[in-house]
Task: structure prediction
Amino acid sequence: MRIILLVLTLTFWLPNIINAQNNVAKIDINKLIEEYPGKDEYVKDIEELSDGLQTKLDDMYNKLKATINKYESEAELQSEETNIERAKEINREREKISEQQKIAIEQLEKFESNINRKMSVNVHKVVLYIAEKQNLDFVLDSSHGYNIIEADCKDIFNDVKTELIKFIAEQE
Result:
């Protein structure tokens, strides 16, 4: 009777034990971000913003430089009070330029951050889509290799990249 019970138990539980194994895949997220479709356009947008901000700062600096040259050439002809006021004016303009530099850096960082966030969100959505489509339980990010042992783990990089291209095209 025990043998029959053991055979019945194994018969019913063996398929459950076999199915209990998780489907696992890996993807190198850093590589995917490097090869992100349309990333060149984002880089171009960042460079254009940076160039525009730099041009504005250069204009401010060149105007200040012209003012300094003018004031230096006229210094001997001006009163001490006028020269003191001009020195204060120059310091105020330097502070404005310094403040504008900080604002420009913040704008550029915010713009870059928004682009990186958008790319990350899109990658995450597509990885989840592929994981669901391929009935995967876990997807490991192999870009860092933190204590991950990759024993013939399925790599879904190409699947995700292909789907990411479609996803981005649909958004535009």
